[in-house]
Amino acid sequence: MIPLQVVAIVLVGLGGLAVVAARDPLRQALVLGVYGLTLVILFVVLQAPDVALSELVVSTVAFPFILFTALAKMRDRE
Amino acid sequence: MSPRVRLGLFGVSAAVLACLFVWALTGLPQFGAFRGEYGRILNSAAGPERHVTNVVSAVTFDYRGFDTLGEEVLLFTAVMAVALLLREARSGDERRADAVRSDVVRAVGLFAVGPTVVMGLYVAAHGYLTPGGGFQGGVATASGLVLLYAAGRYRAYRAASPKTLIDFAEGTGVGTYVVVGLAGIVVGGSAFLENVVELGVKGTLASGGTIAILNAVSGLAVASACVLIFHEFLEELMTAK
After folding, report:
1. 8 Å CB contact of A61 and B234
2. Which label site among B35, B110, B149, B209 has the fewest CB atoms less than 10 Å from its CB?
3. Is residue B107 part of a domain?
4. Is B206 on the interface with A (CB under 8 A)?
5. Three-state SS at A45
6. B80 Cβ under 8 Å from any chain A Cβ
7. How far apart are CA B196 and CA A69, in angstroms?
8. Is B234 part of the contact surface with chain A (CB cutoff 8 Å)?
9. DSSP letter at B189?
10. Position B7 in a domain
11. Hey, are the CB atoms on A73 and B133 less than 8 Å from each other?
């Protein structure tokens, strides 16, 4: 395991912890996007660019979008 | 069960789980040691067989092409389900104001629409040459369009993606995949998804045979699926309850 891989794996671990530690759903959704980016870095470092691109578009566009609109809708109802 | 018993039970099970976990870890192969032969074989076979430079695309659209068809249908079904569920519950057409207040957000966001869409199309089109492909490029293209809403107005997003056209694109994307697959049986005379098109020159856009077509139509299907899902969610958000 080269140092860059270790750094990437540690980043993913910290990102996952940050997602769990965030209590407010909106903040959690944002942190989840950042966590996705750390996974993207890990996949690039592990030389899987195709997977990295998939993770990039899903974790920074598709998934947050659905979460944000759902949260906005819930906020409307309150 | 008293809290103390419960805690003791947890302690014992956690210890057993920890032991099993460590035991499993010691049995793992070395980090980076890949035992499967599949990857090595495909790396040497995909180039000569399918004239592609991105082996992953040969896997998704040829060697595992049928799986990808399943994923396309899955996405298609998901979009249909979202539309069915959300359209049912919607009533009234009162729109809430969605003007973006910050000039910086509007300027940067709207400026990014063009480049993002072009980049998405680029990633989709070069799927069988470089990393990327229909799925990644499709979502990226749809995300460029959704910037029209995020930095501009919902109305602009709707105008840029007329529902009838997107519905048609979604159906065409999935349908063409099946048609290309059937062509393998009818024209090629052998198997479902068998290549029936000229393989072309490796490393150029005109290469890969049916991989190029399947890559393009799945990009179309994924992009329109995302646009439709975004549509439904935004419509839900914009319609006052």
Report:
1. no
2. B35
3. yes
4. no
5. helix
6. no
7. 44
8. yes
9. S
10. no
11. no
Query: ipTM of the assembly?
Result: 0.89
Q: Match 């479902």 to its residue by tokens.
A: B192
With CB atoms and an 8 Å threshold, state whether B142 touches A50: no
- Integer distance in angstroms from the first to the last C-alpha of chain A? 50
Chain A residues whose CB is inside 8 A of the B229 CB are 62, 66
How many C-beta neighbours within 10 Å does residue B238 have?
21
CA B137, CA B118: separation in Å to the nearest integer?
A: 9
DSSP per residue, A7-22: HHHHHHHHHHHHHHH-
Measured between CB atoms, does A75 come within 8 Å of chain B?
A: no
In this structure, are residues B193 and B210 in contact, taking their beta carbons and an 8 Å threshold?
Answer: yes
Mean predicted lDDT score pLDDT of chain B = 89
Return phi, psi of residue B239, to 5°.
Answer: -80, 125
Domain that holds residue B147: 36-238
Q: Which pTM does this prediction carry?
A: 0.87
Structural domains of chain B, count: 1
H helical segments located in B51-64? 55-58
Helices A25-45 and A49-57, axial angle in degrees (round to 10):
170
Q: Closest Cα partner for B230 from A63, A55, A34?
A: A63
Would B191 be classed as within a structural domain? Answer: yes
| Residue B88 located in a structural domain | yes
Provide the residue type at B234 as one letter: L
**Amino acid letter at B236?**
E
pLDDT digits (tens, 9 = 90+) for B35-64: 788 888 999 998 898 999 999 999 999 999
> How far, CA to CA in Å, does A2 sit from each of A40, A48, A52?
17, 16, 19
Q: Which of B44, B68, B54, B56 lies closest to B207, judged by CA?
A: B54
